[in-house]
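Saturday, quiet lab. Running sequence design on the structure tokens for the scaffold JK sent over.
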């Protein structure tokens, strides 16, 4: 219980700070410091007709072994507030003392709608939903055999008086059902997952310092036994043109978290009115 209370306080603290900020005198176009952070969905959508490609690689030091995940995400702006997205993943598992497996993981599709400069302030919000399709083979460890639907709400606030920093947060509910059985024949109902993420982006020259706190748990239903907590420092660089690169290191703080991860990502935007 003490761990949960500390987690709630840490996750809530940036939004308590938001209440102390004065509202913007007039609506301004928000400055998008980064396209993506490492484990949180930001409020910013793609502009109408704009495409964003994100190549990401994640190296995981898990409790039972090590794995590498690679993915290509495509985001497209239907309007200046509404976007569609798809993530095509690949997984390479190298468990300690076991055989390596590699192949396609679970495909993800999603959509997000954003509300920027709410009431003429520096506060933004977005609502979205992600759907996970069980395309990865659970017998080879490339997927979980679960159909997942995760609605989420993201919040963000620009802090122009703090060197144009940006504070953000996200809450999501991952609902799952088994649609692809493995050879182990686990018929138990899978556990749904609640997640909270929060953090801060601070610009320093052409770099953006990122700090995230990421918590998720399925212990509240169907005999779930996982509760993970990560602190995720990272840095993102603005590159020439519409390119962006970043490296983050999520560090696990609970027994069911990976010990640590290394996340590298490269982002390119094109199309839309501004490109």
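Result came back. Writing it out in full:
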């Amino acid at each position: 219980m003490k761990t949960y209370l500390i987690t709630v306080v840490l996750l809530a603290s940036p939004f308590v700070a938001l209440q102390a900020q004065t509202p913007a005198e007039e609506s301004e176009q928000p400055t998008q410091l980064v396209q993506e952070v490492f484990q949180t969905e930001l409020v910013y959508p793609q502009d109408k007709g704009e495409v964003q490609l994100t190549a990401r690689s994640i190296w995981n030091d898990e409790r039972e072994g090590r794995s590498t995940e690679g993915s290509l995400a495509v985001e497209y702006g239907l309007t200046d507030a509404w976007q569609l997205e798809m993530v095509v993943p690949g997984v390479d598992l190298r468990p300690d003392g076991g055989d390596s497996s590699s192949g396609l993981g679970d495909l993800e599709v999603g959509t997000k709608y954003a509300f920027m400069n709410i009431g003429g302030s520096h506060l933004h919000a977005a609502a979205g939903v992600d759907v996970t399709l069980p395309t990865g083979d659970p017998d080879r460890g490339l997927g979980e055999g679960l159909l997942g639907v995760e609605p989420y709400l993201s919040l963000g606030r620009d802090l122009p008086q703090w060197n144009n920093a940006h504070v953000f947060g996200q809450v999501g509910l991952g609902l799952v059902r088994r649609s692809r059985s493995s050879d182990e024949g686990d018929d138990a109902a899978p556990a749904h997952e609640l997640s909270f993420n929060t953090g801060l982006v601070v610009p320093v020259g052409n770099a953006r310092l990122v700090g995230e706190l990421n918590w998720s748990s399925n212990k509240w239903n169907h005999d779930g036994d996982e509760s993970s907590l990560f602190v995720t420092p990272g840095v993102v660089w603005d590159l020439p043109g519409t390119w962006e690169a970043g490296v983050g290191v999520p560090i696990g703080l609970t027994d069911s978290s990976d010990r640590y991860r290394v996340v590298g990502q490269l982002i390119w935007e094109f199309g839309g009115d501004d490109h």
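Notes for JK: Residues 148 and 260 are 25 Å apart (CA to CA). The mean pLDDT is 88. Ask whether to fix the surface positions before the next round.
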